[in-house]
Amino acid sequence: MVTARFRWFPHGGRRHAVPNALVPNTAGETLCGMEVLAPLVPPPPFPDWCWPECARCDTAWRSAEGTSPRPQFPCPRSDDRPERPRTTAKTGDNP
Prior knowledge:
Elements: E1 6-11, E2 14-19, E3 27-29, E4 35-37, H1 55-65
Antiparallel strand pairs: 1-2, 3-4
């Protein structure tokens, strides 16, 4: 069984990745470089665990774990796709 090296930790409106070895009442650092203090009591599951992931922590976590990058939505346009013409509503056509 593989042991996770990091876990998600809610802080400042985002979920940040911290080392799994971070124990309560100790200072540590998130993967994005933010200093945090692990609380003695775990944060409540709602709303803290509904916060979005910190993009920098997510990128660093995926790199460290060897997983693929998070897909971006909407997908970025590539330069080889022509721009779609924009349609405009015509006025006065409806009775």
